[in-house]
Amino acid sequence: MSTQALTLETHDETVKDGIVLIDFWADWCGPCKQFAPVFEQASEQHGDVTFTKVDTEEQQQLAARYGITSIPTLIAYRDGIPVFGQPGALPAPALEDLIQQVKSLDMDQVKQQYAQAVEAQQQQAQQQAAPQRQGVRAGTDPAAF
Q1: What is the model's pLDDT at position 128?
Q2: How many CB atoms within 10 Å of residue 73?
Q3: Active site residue 32
Q4: For 91, which DSSP code?
Q5: What is the mean pLDDT of residues 40-45?
Q6: Continuous segment of H or E residues that includes residue 64
Q7: If you placed Cys at 32, which of 25, 54, 123, 128 could pair as Cys (CB 3.0 to 4.6 Å)?
């Protein structure tokens, strides 16, 4: 499977199931160009993983949603939960190791930990907003991994 472009409009549907890797990049970025063939080769070796790319120049809102300040940045999702995020170009062996780690995650444990983290974030937000008595959105920020 080859890589596919990820946009703000396709993001939520794309990351909700399975393993999804997101490469944030830009055409002017040298390390991004070095990482691109590594990412593409991994996509051909792992048909069970969705490999996506976000051009930060074209998808500025999506990059801002993740708080991207350095590229390339790699984000990994499994079953709708962000499980990894790191700036920098990975060498092929490190990317392969990451993919294997994401595949071997105990998702029952991850879901439990994620639910606890979201609950804690909601409670903290409610405490901070209590004097203002404003509604608080659920903590589903993709950058909160």
Answers
A1: 85
A2: 22
A3: yes
A4: P
A5: 96
A6: helix 60-66
A7: 25
Of 32, 74, 89, 98, the active-site residue reads 32
Asked whether the beta carbons of 70 and 87 are under 8 A apart, the reply is yes
pLDDT at 92 over 70: yes
Amino acid at 143: A
Return the DSSP state at 63: H
Map residue 4 onto helix, strand or coil: strand
Q: Which of 102, 114, 104, 119 is nearest to 142 (CA)?
A: 114
| 21, β-bridge pairs | 51, 76
Q: Which of 9, 99, 84, 1 is nearest to 54 (CA)?
A: 9
Whole-prediction pTM value?
Answer: 0.83
List 20, 21, 29, 68, catalytic entry: 29
41 is catalytic: no
